[in-house]
Amino acid sequence: MTTPLPTAAAEGAGAPDTTEAPASPWKLALHRLRHQKAALVGAAIIAFFVLAALLAPVLTAISGTRPDTVDKKAVDPYLGGLPRGALGGISPQHWLGVEPLLGRDIFARLLYGAQISLLVAFSAALLITLIGTVLGITAGYFGGRTDALISRFMDVMMSFPSLIFMIALLSVARDVNRVLLLIGVMSLFSWPYIARVVRGQTLSLKHREYVEAARASGTRNSRILFGEILPNLTGTIIVYVTLAVPGLIGTEAALSFLGVGIRPPTPSWGQMISDAVLYYKVDPMFFILPSACLFLVVLAFTLVGDALRDALDPKGSRT
Amino acid sequence: MTTPLLAVQNLAVTFDTAEGTVHAVKGIDFTVERGRTLGIVGESGSGKSVTSLAVMGLHRGATVTGSAQLDGTELIGAPDDHLRTLRGRKMAMVFQDALTALHPYFTVGDQIAEAYRSHFGGTRKAAHARAVDVLGDVGIPEPARRAREHPHQFSGGMRQRAMIALALSCEPDLIIADEPTTALDVTVQAQVLDLLTRLQRERGLGLVLITHDLGVIARAADDVLVMYGGSAVEQADAEALFTTPRHPYTRGLLDSLPRLDAAPDTALRAIPGTPPSLLAPPAGCAFHPRCPAYAATSDTRCTGERPPLRTVAGGHRSACIHDEVTA
Amino acid sequence: MIGYLLRRLAAMAATLLVVCALTFAVFYLFPADPAVQFCGKDCSTERIELVRQQLGLADPLIVQFWHYVTGIFAGQTLGTGQYAVQCGFPCFGYSFQSAQPVWDLMMDRLPTSISLALGAAALWLLLGVGTGVVSALRRGTRLDRTLMVGTIGVAALPVYFTAMILLYLVVTVAGLLPYPRYIAFTEHPGQWISNLILPWITLALLNAAIYARMTRNSVIETMAEPYVRTARAKGLRERRVVGKHGLRPALTPVVTMLGMDLGGLLAGALITESLFSLPGIGKLFADSLNKSDQPVVMGVTLLASFFIVSSNLVVDLLYAWIDPRARLA
């Protein structure tokens, strides 16, 4: 009869989409982000830790300590090897104090621990982005049997108790490169979450007019995937990866805490916490410092990820 | 002079959004008498649904000004506790898509019985019996059995009948039906519309029929209000509107209908352009960017002030400056 | 409904078989020599050979897997002759170090894990769902913003930190509660609570934050549904509109998530159990890791998967019971 316009449900409230579109969604997102104090604080914390990790050799040269140098003079053998001095042995030589027993410098160990934590988390994030995006797009775009196969696989992977399985795998694995092993094992169980989101988005993008038009005009699948679909997924992917990073950092810490992650003498935060738990009553600083680092980094990534989601993916998505 | 069932005066609705204030409805007037059907027609964003929600007091987060009196009782600004006793009981609503408007978790019978009990009390059993009765009234076969089913087990047409049954269950005086047939197949549309008008006549109800479909108006309405960009642009009885449309927008709408008496390959004439943005509406007459009369004359009065509704014939009002010229 | 149940059960059986196969692969294929792994630290060559024979590692892999799977349902005898050991139904492996079937070891620990999981779940539901609902209904207010910022902060707290700070402040400094140890509910309900309250809080905080955010989203989304508007249009009281028509569908995804999280928690609380030295299944797992008692590690891995897969089934059935539309699937 009359032009069948969108239904009445959108009336009034649906006004924003009749306004002119902003120049670019990225600019809009950046604009929104600037007005989020929480996101800025988060970004600053991340920048701080990334810099600290990158500059670890420089900073430890300045402080004059090494992460694995044993300093028996800094601990008191008559007090069961507790650090000498207040607050876990803070002194001009040891800026953040020393470990009980061995007297290794906490400042240096935290810096090198940050290197490991961030390296493992970022590499794993990169890997799951790659695997998750490729499999998610493939499943969503090609559909049919490909989709059924990949989706079933994802379901099975997600019905595993991931932490337990990661530990089991790490405990039987032949001891090669612990860092690579950790990255691999952590990625193995984390990619389905990103793949699922990417698959859903691809499914809805697939039926947009411009994609159908490209397909109808005989554009190659690879061109459509990388030219039309992938660019529209970047926002979502960035949000999910950012939100996956704190989980990965926490998992690395948990694995190292349980003794199946990074092995001594390489320092890692989880390992430090695991050592410190024994001393929580007598040397709380040793325990608080790595925990605080872990807390701050996880918090920072969550803040930024949350703000990114609000800015890039306003509808958000539920787990 | 008796008070009309529903008298709306200078009703305006605004929303505050992050992007600015949206004037969804900009001061409209209409009355609905018992036993008559008012059709409100317009495109998405014309403010027709917002109007109905404002009357019912179901507008969330909107500012409503003006007056709407139901049987002499002021609704706008009334406390929600008071409105609640009127909603469902004195004025009821039939929503567009019964699949989403009915609750997926509860049986159809329970949903009707719940409305009945909330206004009349009584036992569950009595309320359920009442639900079965109204389901029968709206032509649902085996109402006792269907009452125990969930909405997703109903066909589209049956679901919309159940929605109407829900509205009728407390014997309201006024029913507002917002696009009651839009989500249905064409053949079912006619059945549901006929049911609605039959019930309205039998029970002497006032009916407000909101639609974007002039076919629905032609079939069911006694009076018509044409809305565009949040304002009423034309108001007339149905007969006059279809025979002598006055506003260029109404004429555009009528021209875009397919006609049986036209030559088979005549192209339908769509109104050019898109409905106006509510955030940044055009100055003056909201329709001028799409209006053929403005295109022909470039009259500065079209872009100056919003033209008011003026009586152009007995009971026929239109909001166009060119009315004398183009009539 | 019966057909639905059968289909779901079949799917679950298939998933379990895959889980068994993968677990088997991890422990039998991945290590250089499974016998060394299963025997544990400091095993003599003779003992390793004995374990090799008891596990039947000379058999083809498929035969080993067959014995392994059938053992779960029928039990099995490991080895032959005088060195044979009995591993009765359900055989989740045999710990050569403690000379006990893994199943028995796990069942000893199960009550602790169940107490821990249920108490924590009750706590995080109360806190999380309460916060989420309040936040959603007061959306955009200062209270909402404060609560949501709070959930981000709480979610970032490392469990180690929560546990140790609670221990330090409540037990060491204030002396309000005893150092947690497991006391059976049947033995002394009051002490059961006072001993477990700190582990419950530790375990519940993260999930409380996650549930709060999820509940808030879900409630906001549901309250915008047309059927909620219909409930208002019927003239129902706002309390009934929110409580019956809004919250019921809004909390359905919460129920789904609860089921899966509970399933994961029975063996997944290993860090909390380790921090508080509570003898749950997670602690058994962590201890066995340290002792290299591989059969126990494998048994717990399998049991944990079984918990998750079966809780997925329970969740699906629950979902079908709550939402009539799901029964069609």
TrEMBL record, chain C:
The entry's keywords = Cell membrane, Membrane, Transmembrane, Transmembrane helix, Transport
TM ranges = 9-30, 114-137, 149-171, 191-212, 254-276, 296-322
A cellular component term from Gene Ontology for this protein is: plasma membrane
A Pfam family? BPD_transp_1_N
Residues forming the ABC transmembrane type-1 domain are 110-319
InterPro entries cross-referenced by the UniProt entry? BPD_transp_1_N, MetI-like, MetI-like_sf
Q: Name one GO biological process term.
A: transmembrane transport
Q: How does it sit in the membrane?
A: Multi-pass membrane protein
Checking PANTHER family in the record gives: DIPEPTIDE TRANSPORT SYSTEM PERMEASE PROTEIN DPPB-RELATED
Q: What is this protein called?
A: ABC transporter permease
- Read off the lineage from the record: Bacteria, Bacillati, Actinomycetota, Actinomycetes, Kitasatosporales
